[in-house]
């Protein structure tokens, strides 16, 4: 994996962990204090974290070297995962 993809992967993991932390805090606060809007926003933050998983899969697939069926490499997976996110 080249250096750029490694940095992107590191950043996606960091943002994923931060999104999980934010969603957990919102969910706990919302449910403990019976504030449905905060709990709902916690679920929204959890979905934001799931988009980071899609990005991580795309970056991991894009880092694969060229093979017989993909002579120019797998870089298009990164473009695809960016469109999904």
State the gist of this model.
Helix content is 78%, strand content 0%. The chain is mostly helical and 85 residues long.
Blueprint of the fold:
Blueprint: H1 3-32, H2 36-62, H3 76-84
Helix pairs in contact: 1-2, 2-3
Descriptive notes:
78% of the residues lie in helices and 0% in strands. α1 (3-32) packs antiparallel against α2 and α2 runs antiparallel to α3 (76-84). With 85 residues, it is mainly alpha-helical. The protein has helices at 3-32, 36-62, 76-84. It is built from 3 helices and no strands.
Beta fraction: under 5%
| Low-pLDDT runs | none
Number of helices, counting only DSSP H or I runs of 4 residues or more:
3
Round the Cα radius of gyration to an integer and report it: 17 Å
Outline: elongated
**Helical amount among residues, as a percent range?**
over 70%
